[in-house]
Amino acid sequence: MFDTLITPQQLQDNLNDYCVFDCRFNLADVDYGRRSFDFSHIPGASFLDLNKDLSSPVSTDTGRHPLPDPQILADLLYSVGLRPGKQAVVYDDVGGATAARAWWLLRWLGHHNVAVLDGGFPAWQAAGFAMTADTRKPATISEHVSARVDIKQVLSTADVSNNLDTQNFTVVDARSAERYLGQVEPIDPVAGHVPHALNRPLTDNLQDGKFKNAATLRAEWLQVLEGHAPEKIVHMCGSGVTACHNQLAMEIAGLHGSRVYVGSWSEWIRDPTRPVAVEKSPAQN
Predict the structure, then answer these.
(1) Model pLDDT for residues 151-193, shown as the tens digit of each residue
(2) For residue 243, is it left (φ>0), alpha (ψ between -120 and 50) or beta?
(3) Which of 19, 23, 237, 244 is catalytic?
C-alpha cells in the first residue's frame, strides 16, 4: 500500500490496477484544470475539480474551500471505480499543492490507500510514459457506499479560537512568509495570521518540484515544531487546501497524528472581531 507518495515508475508498473485522479487547478483560472485534463492526462485518470468536487459551495460563514459533502464525494469516487482497499493515486502539476487536498479528503473518508504522485504530471511526462486525451466518462453506477468521515481530523474555527487561551495545540500556517506576516495579501481581504501560529510555507517541503526525502523533512519539521508533539499540530493555510501539503510532509517524515483547520485564514477573517497578528517588514518600522 502506498499511503504518502508514489513515483511515476511505481504508478506505471501498476497503472491498470490503480484508481488515478487528476487534480490540476489554478486559482487565477478555474477552468485550467479541466482544459488541461481534456488536452492530456495519465491514461485511465478521472478529473476532480477543486471547486466543484473537492469543496462545497462557499457561504457567508465559510472559507474559500469548505469541506465537500462526504456522501456526494464518496458517490463520485465510487462511480469511477474506487473501492475499499483499492490503491488511489492523485496528482497535479504544482508539487502536490492541490493533489494533497484530495489525498487528505480520501483519508478523511477512511480510505488510506491513497498516495500523491511525487512530481505530479510533469514528472510523469519527463519519464516518457503514455498520455491520453481520452475523456470518455465511465458508465454510471447506481450503487454507492455510505460515507463515514473521521471527524477527529477536522478542527473548526471555534476550536482554533478557543485554543488562543488554552494553547492545547499548535497551529502551523502553510502560506508564504510574506502572507503569514501580513506584509502582502494578494487573495484575501485581510492580511496577517492567527495569533501564536507558526509558519512553514508548503514550498519548503519541495526540491525541484518533488518532496524532499523523509530524513530531510523530518529534520526540518522537528526544527519548526520546537518540541511540540506531532499529534498536537494543526495545519492551516489560506483556504484549507495547501494545509494538507504540510500534513502530507509530516506523514512522509514519520511525524504522525497532525490535523487540519479546514476553514483556515479565509474563514477566520469572516468575523472582524477575531484577532489578527501582523508583523511589519523592516522597511515599515
Answers:
(1) 889 999 999 999 999 999 999 999 999 999 999 999 999 999 9
(2) alpha
(3) 237
Q: What is the dihedral of CA 119, 120, 121, 127, to 10 degrees?
A: 40
The alpha carbon of 279 is separated from its chain's Cα centroid by a whole number of angstroms, namely 27
Q: Which of 3, 152, 145, 149 is nearest to 74 (CA)?
A: 145
Residue 237 annotated to the active site: yes
90 C-beta neighbours (distance < 10 Å), count: 28
Q: What is the distance between the alpha carbons of residues 137 and 285, in angstroms, rounded to a whole number?
A: 57
Say which residue the cell 488541461 belongs to. Answer: 36
- State the Rg of the chain over Cα: 19
pTM: 0.95
CA–CA distance, 93 with 99 (Å, rounded to integer):
9
Could you tell me the three cell numbers for 159?
476550536
